[in-house]
Amino acid sequence: MADAQFDVVGVGNAIVDVIAQADNALIERLELSKGTMTLIESDEADRLYSEMGSGIETSGGSAANTLAGIASLGGRAAYIGKVRDDQLGGVFSHDIKAAGVDYRLRAATEGPTTARCLIFVTPDADRTMQTYLGVSVMLGSDDIDPEAIGNAQITYLEGYLFDREEAKEAFVKAAELAHAAGRKVALSLSDPFCVDRHRASFQHLVEGHIDILFANHDEITSLYETDSFDDAVGQLVGKVELAAVTRGAEGSVIVTSSEVVEIPAEAVEKVVDTTGAGDLYAAGVLFGLTQGYELDVAGRIGSICAGEVISHYGARPETSLAALVKEKLG
Amino acid sequence: MADAQFDVVGVGNAIVDVIAQADNALIERLELSKGTMTLIESDEADRLYSEMGSGIETSGGSAANTLAGIASLGGRAAYIGKVRDDQLGGVFSHDIKAAGVDYRLRAATEGPTTARCLIFVTPDADRTMQTYLGVSVMLGSDDIDPEAIGNAQITYLEGYLFDREEAKEAFVKAAELAHAAGRKVALSLSDPFCVDRHRASFQHLVEGHIDILFANHDEITSLYETDSFDDAVGQLVGKVELAAVTRGAEGSVIVTSSEVVEIPAEAVEKVVDTTGAGDLYAAGVLFGLTQGYELDVAGRIGSICAGEVISHYGARPETSLAALVKEKLG
C-alpha cells in the first residue's frame, strides 16, 4: 500500500475539551457516572460548566486525538469532522492543522455550536466526560471525502459518531469507499455505554465492514454481552483481521486469527489525566501497522504514546512522539 | 480596614491566553520581541495564530491572574474587566468566578471580540506575548463600580490598561474613589515597553495616586530612564508608601521609606512557563499586606505563589495556594 497519500484518514466528532480538576465529592453531587462518557444537551452543558472549576480548553475528539498522535509519530494523517465557524471551531481547526494533520472540512456557517466535552479529572487521574455534541454530529455522507478515503492505507472510524443516524450512514459509506479502493477500515468502539446504545449496529458494522478493531475490556464484553474477556475475544476472531484490546494498567493484547500478542503498559512516573489513553494507543498501533512493523512493535509504540498522554492534562501529545519512540525503542 | 467587604478589587484587561510551545527559531522567523508583550491588531493575531503550534486556551489577564491568586490564598477578591458575549468571553467569566472571584461586569453585547494573548513559550520557559486587546480596552469610567472600590482594602490597577485613553481616565476615577473611601491604591507597571509608551502618564499616576507599586527591574529603570536599579528605587521612595520590585531568579525587594526587605526566590524543581510570575507574586504580597503580615512574610508568600505558577503552563494557580503557603511557612 505504499502508493497511498495518507497512512490514516480519521472520521470522528470534532470536539474541544474543557478540562478541570474535580474531587470525588463533586462527581457525586453532580450525579455523574465516573469514568464514562455521557451525552448532554446544551442546557445541561451550561449547568454543569457553571459547577465546574476553572479549566483549560484544548482540542479533543477521539479520532482527532488519534490522528494528531499519528502525525506526531511522523505518519501522514488526514481528518474529517465538523465544527462551526465560532471561536472554539477556530481553536479546533487551528490545532489539528498545527499538529500536521490534513483537515478536510470547512466550518459550518449555521447550525449548533462546535462540540464541547466537559472533562472532570479526579485525583486518581480518571476522567468523567460530559459531551455536548453540537454541530459535530451533523456530519453526514456528503462530508465523506472519497478522494481522502481512497488515498489512505487505513480509514479509521470513531464509534462515538454512531450516536446519530446520519453518521452511521456516513460510516458505511466511508467503509465501502475504502474497501472499493483496496484499503483497510478500522473502528474504535469508544465507550461501553456507546456500545450498549448501538449494540446491533456495531455488531453488524464489525462483521460486515471492519478489518481492524480497537476496544477496551468493557467495550468488547458489552459488544458480545458476556462477562468473559476471553469469550468476547474468541467471538471477534475471524470476524475482523486484527483486534487490539486495551486493559488499562495491565497493558493490551493484539489478536489475529493466527496470533495473540500481549503488550505491557508503559511505565509512567505519575499518571495525571487518563483522557486520550485509548486514542493515543490506537495512534501508535495504526502508525506501526502502516509502517509495516511486527505486531509486538506496533503494540509497544501504542503503549509509549498512551504513556505520554496520561502524564499530563489533555488528550493530545505535548512532545514529539517520533522522538519519544526513537528514544524508547532505541 | 477590617470593615472592608473585599481584600482586593482589581481592574485590568480581561484576556484569554492561547499558549503553545515554540522554539527560538520560530520566534526569530516571526520577528517577535522575545520575553516581552507586544500589542497586535486582529489581522496580525490571525496571522500569528496560523503560525503557532497546537495550543491550550486558559484564562489570563495580568490583574485577573493576581485576583485568582488572592482568592486561592483565601482572600476576598473582586474583578472589573470587560469581555464580549462570545465563547472565549464565556470561558473567561466562568474561570474567574470558578476561582472564587466576585466578577463585577456583564459581557458586552457588541463591539470587538474578547481579548486574546498568544503566548509562545520557549524551552527556556520564557514567554513571548502577542496581545489582541479586543473589547477589553473598551473599559471606561462608567465600568468602575464605586461600591466595589469603596469596599475593598486595596484597589489594584493593571498597567497594561494604560494603552487606551478611556482606560487611563477609568484608572484615575478608581484611584480617586478608593482614596475618598480611605482605601489604598496599588499599580503594576506590567511591561517595560508599556512603561515606555506611557512614561509621563505613569509618572504622574505614581506620584499622585499610587500607594503600592509593583514592578520588575526593567520597568522601574524604564520609568525613571536610568540604568541603575538603586537609582530607580531611590527615586520611588517617598513617592509611594511601598514598592515591591521583582528581579527574576534573584527574588525581590520590598522598599518603604523606612525599610528595605530582600526576599529570595522560591526554589522550583523545573521552571516550565514563566507566564504569570509577576502576577502571582503580586497576589501573595497583596494578600500578605491585607492580612497584616510583616513585609518579609508578605514577600515570601509572593515568592511561593510565583514559584507555583512557573512550574506549569498557564498563568493561574493549579493548586490551592492557601494549602501550599501553609505547607511552606509551617
- For the record, the count of structural domains of chain A works out to 1
Mean pLDDT score of chain A = 94
Strand order across the largest sheet of chain A:
6-5-1-9-10-11-12-13-14
Radius of gyration of chain A: 18 Å
Structural class of chain A: alpha/beta
Structural description of this entry:
Helices cover 39% and strands 21% of the residues of chain A. Chain A is of the alpha/beta class and 330 residues long. The first copy, chain A, has a single domain, classed as Ribokinase (UDP-N-acetylmuramoyl-L-alanine:D-glutamate ligase), CATH 3.40.1190.20. In chain A, the strands form two sheets. The first copy, chain A, has a nine-stranded mixed sheet with strand order 6-5-1-9-10-11-12-13-14. In chain A, strands 3-8-7-2-4 form a five-stranded mixed sheet. In chain A, β5, α4 and β6 form a beta-alpha-beta unit. In chain A, α9 packs across α10 and α11 packs antiparallel against α12. The model of chain A has no long low-confidence stretch (mean pLDDT 94). Chains A and B meet through β2, β4 and α4 of A and β2, β4 and α4 of B.
Question: Which keywords apply here?
Answer:
homodimer, 330 residues, alpha/beta, UDP-N-acetylmuramoyl-L-alanine:D-glutamate ligase, five-stranded mixed β-sheet, 14 strands, 39% helix, 21% strand, globular
